[in-house]
Specification:
alpha/beta, Rossmann fold, 4 domains, 20 strands, ATP binding, nucleotide-binding
Length: 857
């Protein structure tokens, strides 16, 4: 992908809003120019030829600002690029926060982001410095114009009287606010120009060429549901080595085909190619019928279970109930507080891996498609649920549908019409199951391998995010967090510093203007004091409304970011179900919702300006009236002119002033030495008022033993592992490792001493070496040993020696029973309660054993 998810998030939450704000500032460009022309005409009437000096001073100021603007543009472009990198890494870390906490990598990734922030700060300093130079230049413009004009008047012999001096000064006093704010206009223009160029580059990026696939969604299908002939596919443009080569495949209507092969053989890529996600460089592909898709890693929307299953389709209660039954979801929904109307968090974090996968299967079935593409949907399910689903879902509900299933579970293969064996991006073997086993050594090796075993693996802001408990990430939408580290941080960086400067300077100017007026005519205080009181009341009234509008704006903007992050994560599923228009329409609705408080914030700001100018005009009019009523010769005309000129700038200073104001103990180094884990009456719930997920589990894992944890989907196996790593806080009970209560030691110490292979595989941006050892703690030899042990040397075209871990305590959460048979002890869980805990052999002998039932299934 040319543009990462973090960059796209920046385009939407930062760049698009900068372009949206530019029209507000754009009008100041031509209005300032028009005001300047009118002012020069008035000045010419007052000082005649000396006006040329004023024009020359203004032109000189503009010429001096050009190189500064170019530098600011350069720095702004660099700054945005660095911000993209920081947001990309921040997004990656936040999305995979559970993995970082499991491996105790929070500090490392926090340091990486802090280093990126330091680089960003250097460019930010450059941008702000150039902006400061601009401000200094334009703020000094009135002084330069006054000096040049009066000096020219002296040399040309133009008489300077109180009337023409007052006219000249008063005219430029009225222009002073427009001139001093011109650096802001230039800065906004540069930011909008950079943002527009970045968005234009994104919009000009190559589109996904789905037109290469001939798809007929008519129900009246051809005899073939799918036909692929001599096709080559590649993820990378202009690649000399295609990801899939010479693919030939024909599926008749109603045919069931399984795809098998080693890890990395191209199975998921083939499914993606059929969906149009992988560019085709050779051959043809034709599809007849509507497609439903189930991804390998479950994608769940933020919403209710019912909304996830319907996925925008109309409710058919009878059919909906049948699908829940066929997807084995009825029992799970009975355990949830509101059944299928239960709100599930972003990425479905309230559900187990198996439950999320079954919601996906129900969503696919409800769409009533003709062709079903299923990418290893049974991997997260226990044996009984998988068998039940296969019988009810695959052999029942999909009996008349065309199905292409990627699977590693060879027990189901005899039920398929045909089996594809893939290797190194090619279809190595195609044919019926028994024929494939008899004629292909590779297929036989694959089946035997699966029978024996299965595969298993900003300082305060960053500190808060990286040390926040997992419950924070479970309940807080990712878009809201990303909004904090993107647009909100940008506001703090660019707007707050100059806002503070303007607040202080405008307050001082307003006070000094009032002081000068009061010295000349103390009677003006009679009007000024009530007006000051009125201004304070207006400020408080405005502040309450403006703060709420800004809060609503931030909340609705987070919804836009959250929906975008969710759409990016499930883009393949959305395109597979052809729901792009629905998600695009929802994005527009969210943007429109956000535009309302965004617009009203500007409207409220203009309302404040209007009222403050009325207050300022009242004070100035009162001062002028008092001066007229004073006895003759009380003050000189020059002194009165100076007072009025200060009064003319009162409204601008007052507006700016009020506007801107509205803004532990440690274990020993060799801990754990034995690896003995004791669980005592452990009770866990995910939220304070939620039901218990683990209900009083007590057991002991001896050091050096292998413990298998089994149970049906949603029984609490993963929660027990999460409690061991302190991802969830126990409601009662405790866990001790080598006699030390894990709640009494630092989280980093705990997680850095324990190892885990997570249920969902995660890869970070970078090299294979970086993904294996992001903290750079191990040498090359140790790294290659692990690569060899993991059977990755073939993919990397290198060899490895291997790494033994027989002296470690190993806890395995597993659905595949053959893997658990090699363990010393087996722990069986059901509905969050410990059912049995003994050796596999002993449990197998018991007639009522849950483990024994799972083995038989």
């Amino acid at each position: 992908m040319v543009h990462s998810g973090g960059e796209i998030m920046n385009y939407v939450t930062v760049d698009a809003y900068r372009i949206g704000e530019f029209p507000f500032w754009f009008h100041q460009i031509w209005t300032t120019g028009l005001q300047l022309l009118i002012a020069l005409a008035i000045v010419f009437h007052a000082v005649r030829l000396a006006t040329i000096a004023a024009v020359a001073a203004i032109i000189l100021t503009v010429l001096c600002s050009i190189p500064l603007a170019k530098l600011q543009h350069k720095f702004q472009t660099k700054l945005i690029g660095v911000q993209d990198g920081r947001l990309k890494d921040s997004s990656e870390a936040l999305v995979n926060m559970k993995i970082l906490k499991l491996y105790a990598w929070e500090n490392h990734f926090k340091n990486v982001i802090e280093n990126l922030r330091k680089v960003e700060y250097r460019w930010l300093s450059g941008v702000q410095l150039e902006k400061a130079y601009h401000s200094l230049l334009f703020w000094s413009t009135p002084f330069l114009v006054f000096s040049a004009t009066f000096g020219t008047c002296y040399f040309l012999g133009v008489p300077l009287h109180a009337n023409n001096v007052f006219t000249f000064i008063a005219t430029f006093r009225l222009l002073q606010d427009s001139i001093t704010s011109f650096p802001d206009v230039i800065g906004v223009f540069i930011q909008a120009k950079v943002a527009f160029a970045r968005i234009a580059k994104f919009l000009e990026a190559p589109e996904l060429q789905r037109a290469n696939i001939q798809q007929n969604c008519n129900r009246e299908r051809d005899s073939n549901s799918m036909s692929i002939k001599s096709a080559d596919f590649t993820w990378e443009d202009k690649s000399s080595n295609p990801s899939l080569r010479n693919i030939n495949l024909e599926l008749r209507a109603g045919e069931k085909v399984a795809i098998c092969g080693e890890v990395g053989s191209g199975k998921s890529t083939l499914v993606s190619a059929i969906l149009g996600e992988v560019p085709k460089i050779e051959g043809s592909i034709k599809i007849s019928g509507k497609i439903s898709y189930v991804s390998q890693i479950a994608w769940i929307q933020n919403g209710t279970i019912q909304e996830n299953i319907l996925f925008g389709s109309a409710m058919d209660s009878e059919r909906y109930g049948e699908i829940l039954e066929k997807c084995s979801l009825v029992k799970d929904l009975e355990l949830l507080p509101y059944g299928d109307l239960t709100e599930i968090g972003e990425r479905g974090v309230n559900l187990s891996g198996g439950q999320k996968q079954r919601v996906q299967l129900a969503r696919a079935l409800y769409q009533n498609a003709d062709i079903f593409l299923l990418d290893d949907p049974f991997s997260a399910l226990d044996a009984q649920t998988a068998t039940s689903l296969f019988n009810e879902y695959f052999l029942g509900a999909l009996s008349e549908k065309t199905v292409l299933l990627v699977t590693h579970q060879v027990d189901f293969l005899p039920a398929f019409d045909s089996v594809l064996l893939m290797s190194d991006g090619k279809i190595l073997q195609e044919g019926p199951y028994h024929g494939s086993v008899a004629s292909s050594k590779e297929f036989q090796d694959l089946v035997n391998a699966h029978k024996e075993t299965a595969e298993s693996l900003f300082t305060q802001l960053l500190n808060s995010l990286f040390h926040a408990p997992m419950s924070f990430y479970d309940s807080t939408p990712l878009g809201r967090i990303l909004s904090r580290v993107s647009s909100d941080l940008s506001t703090i960086d660019l707007d707050v510093p100059f806002g503070l400067i303007f607040t202080v300077s405008s307050t001082i100017n307003a006070c000094s203007s009032l002081l000068v007026l009061a010295v000349v005519t103390w009677q003006v205080l009679i009007v000024s004091i009530p007006m000051i009181f009125l201004s304070v009341r207006l400020q408080r009234y405005y502040f309450a409304s403006a703060k709420e509008l800004m809060r609503i704006n931030a909340t609705t903007k987070s919804s836009v970011a959250n929906h975008l992050a969710e759409s990016l994560a499930g883009a393949t599923t959305i395109r597979a179900f052809q729901k792009e228009d629905r998600f695009f329409s929802k994005s527009l609705d969210l943007i429109d919702t956000n535009a309302s408080p965004f617009f009203h914030s500007f409207a409220a700001n203009e309302w404040l300006i209007q009222w403050i100018e009325i207050v300022s005009a009242t004070v100035l009019s009162s001062a002028a009236l008092c001066m007229v009523l004073l006895p003759p010769r009380t003050f000189s005309s020059g002194f009165i002119g100076m007072a009025l000129s200060y009064g003319l700038s009162l409204n601008n200073s007052l507006v700016r002033s009020i506007q801107k104001q509205c803004e532990e103990s440690r274990p020993s180094t060799d801990w754990p030495a034995v690896g003995k884990v004791e669980v005592e009456d452990l009770q866990v719930r995910y939220r304070p008022n939620a039901p218990l997920v683990l209900c009083g589990i007590s057991c002991t894992f001896e050091g050096g033993h292998k413990i298998g944890i089994v149970g049906r989907t949603g029984s609490g196996k993963t929660t027990l592992t999460g409690a061991l790593f302190c991802l969830v806080e126990p409601a009662a009970g405790k866990i001790t490792v080598d006699v030390i209560d894990i709640s009494t030691i630092g989280l980093h110490d705990l997680k850095s001493r324990l190892g885990i292979i997570p249920q969902d595989p995660t890869l970070f941006n970078g090299t294979v070496r970086y993904n294996l050892d992001p903290l750079s703690q191990y040498c090359d030899q140790e790294t290659w040993e692990v690569i060899g042990k993991s059977q990755l040397q073939e993919a990397l075209q290198e060899k490895g020696k291997g790494l033994e871990s027989l002296d470690r305590s190993v806890i395995i959460v597993e659905h595949r029973i053959p893997t658990v048979m090699d363990c010393n002890m087996v722990l069986a869980i059901s509905d969050g309660r410990l059912v049995e805990y003994d050796t596999p052999t002993t449990l197998m002998k018991r007639e009522d054993s849950l483990f024994g039932q799972l083995v038989k299934e």
